[in-house]
């Protein structure tokens, strides 16, 4: 390690020696001097250099030098994400509909009033909530069980882990195809297996009372492997002595997990839950494929599908934007506390 | 006599492992393995059922065999695979045309941003809000940006700028692929940045410190030290991003819009495959699902551990 370090150092020194003909001429001699700690070094540079030095003084030593790295990605992301959200909000205040561009001179909250009185939006909001909560809870529980099983010194651990995580690599569109076939009324695996127990057949996709739960089940199939991976990392981070100490105290395996191990997985639970909730809010791809297109999904309409249909199927752009803002606020109510938690943990 | 005893010891030595295993078999271990195998069946059944179905004739083979049973010879056919490949082939090419560049560019940008925000000497007070914006952007529902995104790409005269391409015979619809590339880069930056940031905070400070003291500029430290040692993280990020971009339907739907477009990505074609007035052709759907999933399945089989790492972080 030390050898590598010193060789790197010599190499760097050599490179620094022919600074003039190297190709990163973003940095002049004046700037290098600034790095050395002499703030006055920058004075030799242009007026812009003086301004940059003042920026550095205010924000930190490397602020302007590092800007070349973080600023372009930040601006690109910022414009497409935050700029677009702001623009989306403004559009939601217009009456934009059809093919003529939005009229920004007449802004009001009419679309939000309309959404609050729209039974379709209310149903979609309730479904979004049900989907997010039930999917997250079941996927967390399932993933925890998987992680504990895989962590119990079983043989071929890697093989099992690979199999459990496999669905996560598939597209929502692909898994929707698989599950449409699994849930098929006459020939699907689910009804055939239940049939051997004398249950069914059940019309999983056609019955609006149960289709949401069928969707939740399929999504759990796709994402519980993800939860397992997160929990496995959490379990492996717990010192082995904790397991042994509980063992010495005579706790049963079940009690040991319940009292000693699971409480220590709080961090894993929070980070997995956040990601799962966001997947659920994005489940549009799955539902679009399930109903093959823009037609209203029978009993599974969530805000994500409702919004896209309003915009791209009937050109109700302003209304769709208002629904998008409602969805965004739901996401924000999850992300906000998470960011605060991260910040309080010193992760940001 | 002594011979026999030697053989005995040797045998017990060789069998020690097996014996230990046998001793370990108790009710608890049996239940454990039963659970693990049962779960394996749960995860593999939809895929297995899809695979065997893709080789069956429709509708006879599908209705007269069990969904998870392999097709008997009279119902076996490769026709659905041929149809699926010919229907999805151009989509595969189109998907690759934007998924590969978008993956590489977003990974590079993510690495740049992460370096600029971790290794740089900043006042934390100013760094935290910028980091928070990056982290929050990962979780934005795409619906919240779709209408402005459509407006934006509708107002950018990309087609005029690219007119020379259409003149040499590239279909005009390919503008959509360029829009997809840029959009996926922009929306991929936050997750790439956060993945790289997790890695860069573990990089040895001394090495970079030493280089800085020797007068290396911020940019040179990246080129000479940080970028070369990022290779393992690049593998993780590239695999994860490629899977995400290849699998995404929403942007493809909004920016390319119809599956009949010459630029239609594979997921877009797959979403409408096997749907007709006469009913659903499940054999074709399943074959199509496998064809569309092939690239990400290959990536997963080859780099399963790296994929898991990307997912876990």
Automatic annotation (TrEMBL), chain A:
Gene3D superfamilies listed in its UniProt record = MetI-like
Keyword vocabulary terms for this entry: Cell membrane, Membrane, Transmembrane, Transmembrane helix, Transport
What segment(s) does the record annotate as region Disordered? 15-44
| Residues passing through the membrane, by range | 68-90, 129-150, 162-182, 210-233, 269-291, 317-341
Offer a single GO CC term for the protein. Answer: plasma membrane
Record-annotated ABC transmembrane type-1 domain positions: 125-336
What are the subcellular locations of this protein? Cell membrane
Its membrane topology is listed as: Multi-pass membrane protein
Q: Which residues lie in coiled coils?
A: none
Family in the record: Belongs to the binding-protein-dependent transport system permease family.
Protein name, entry field: Carbohydrate ABC transporter permease
Q: Which organism is it from?
A: Halobaculum lipolyticum
UniProtKB/TrEMBL annotation, chain B:
Which Pfam families does the UniProt entry name for this protein? Answer: BPD_transp_1
Q: Tell whether Endoplasmic reticulum is among the UniProt keywords.
A: no
What CDD domains does UniProt report for this protein, alphabetically? Answer: TM_PBP2
User: Keyword annotations for this protein?
Assistant: Membrane, Transmembrane, Transmembrane helix, Transport
Q: Which PROSITE patterns match?
A: ABC_TM1
- Segments passing through the bilayer: 96-118, 130-153, 173-200, 221-243, 249-270, 282-303
Membrane topology is: Multi-pass membrane protein
Provide the ABC transmembrane type-1 domain boundaries: 92-303
**What InterPro entries does the database record attribute to this sequence?**
MetI-like, MetI-like_sf
Q: Which GO terms describe its cellular component?
A: plasma membrane
Its recorded name reads Carbohydrate ABC transporter permease
Q: What organism is listed for this UniProt entry?
A: Halobaculum lipolyticum
Taxonomic classification: Archaea, Methanobacteriati, Methanobacteriota, Stenosarchaea group, Halobacteria
């Amino acid at each position: 390690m030390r050898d590598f370090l010193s060789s790197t150092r010599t190499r760097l020194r050599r490179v620094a020696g022919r600074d003039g003909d190297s190709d990163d001429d973003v940095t002049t001699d004046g700037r290098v001097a600034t790095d050395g700690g002499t703030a006055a070094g920058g004075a030799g540079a242009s007026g812009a250099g003086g301004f940059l030095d003042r920026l550095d003084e205010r924000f930190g030593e490397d602020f302007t030098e590092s800007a070349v790295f973080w600023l372009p990605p930040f601006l690109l992301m910022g414009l497409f994400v935050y700029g677009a959200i702001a623009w989306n909000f403004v559009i939601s205040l217009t009456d934009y509909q059809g093919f003529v561009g939005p009229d920004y001179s007449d802004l009001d909250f009419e679309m939000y009033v309309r959404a609050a009185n729209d039974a379709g939006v209310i149903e979609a909001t309730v479904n979004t909530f049900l989907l997010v909560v039930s999917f997250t809870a079941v996927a967390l529980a399932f993933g925890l069980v998987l992680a504990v099983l895989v962590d119990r010194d079983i043989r071929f651990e890697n093989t099992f882990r690979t199999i459990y995580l496999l669905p996560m690599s598939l597209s929502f569109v692909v898994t929707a195809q698989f599950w449409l076939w699994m849930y098929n009324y006459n020939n699907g695996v689910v009804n055939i297996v239940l049939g051997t127990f004398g249950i069914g057949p059940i019309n999983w996709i056609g019955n609006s009372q149960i289709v949401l739960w069928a969707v939740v089940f399929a999504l759990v199939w796709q994402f519980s492997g993800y939860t397992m991976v997160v929990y496995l990392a959490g379990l492996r981070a717990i010192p082995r002595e904790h397991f042994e100490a509980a063992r010495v105290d005579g706790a049963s395996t079940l009690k040991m997990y319940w009292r000693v191990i699971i409480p220590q997985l709080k961090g894993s639970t929070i980070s997995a839950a956040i990601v799962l909730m966001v997947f659920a809010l994005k489940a549009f791809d799955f539902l679009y494929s399930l109903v093959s297109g823009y037609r209203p999904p029978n009993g599974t309409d969530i805000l994500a599908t409702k919004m896209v249909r309003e915009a791209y199927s009937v050109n109700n752009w302003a209304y769709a934007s208002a629904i998008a803002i409602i969805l965004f606020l739901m996401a924000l109510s999850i992300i906000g506390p998470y960011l605060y938690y991260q910040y309080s943990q010193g992760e940001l | 006599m002594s011979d026999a005893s030697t053989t005995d010891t040797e045998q017990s030595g060789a069998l020690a492992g097996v014996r230990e295993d046998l001793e370990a078999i108790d009710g608890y271990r049996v239940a454990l393995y039963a659970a693990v195998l049962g779960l394996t069946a749960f995860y593999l059944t939809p895929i297995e059922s899809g695979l065997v179905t893709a080789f069956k004739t429709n509708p006879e083979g599908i209705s007269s065999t069990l969904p998870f049973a392999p097709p008997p010879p009279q119902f076996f056919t490769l026709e659905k695979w041929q149809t699926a490949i010919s229907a999805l082939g151009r989509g595969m090419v189109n998907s690759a045309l934007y998924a590969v560049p978008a993956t590489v560019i977003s990974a590079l940008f993510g690495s740049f941003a992460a370096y600029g925000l971790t290794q740089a000497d900043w006042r934390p007070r100013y760094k935290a809000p910028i980091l928070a914006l990056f982290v929050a952007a990962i979780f934005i529902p795409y619906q919240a940006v779709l209408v402005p995104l459509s407006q934006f790409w509708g107002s950018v005269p990309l087609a005029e700028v690219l007119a020379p391409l259409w003149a040499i015979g590239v279909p005009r619809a390919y503008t959509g692929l360029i829009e997809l590339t840029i959009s996926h880069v922009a929306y991929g930056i936050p997750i790439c940045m956060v993945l790289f940031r997790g890695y860069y905070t573990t990089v040895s400070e001394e090495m970079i410190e030493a280089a800085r003291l020797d007068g290396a500029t911020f940019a040179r430290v990246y080129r000479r030290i940080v970028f070369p040692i990022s290779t393992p993280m690049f593998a993780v990020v590239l695999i994860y991003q490629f899977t995400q971009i290849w699998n995404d339907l929403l942007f493809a739907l909004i920016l390319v819009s119809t599956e009949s477009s010459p630029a239609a990505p594979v997921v877009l074609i797959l979403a409408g495959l096997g749907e007709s007035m006469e009913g659903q052709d499940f054999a074709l759907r399943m074959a199509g699902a496998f064809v569309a999933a092939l690239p990400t399945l290959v990536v997963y089989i080859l780099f399963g551990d790296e994929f898991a790492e990307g997912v876990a972080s």
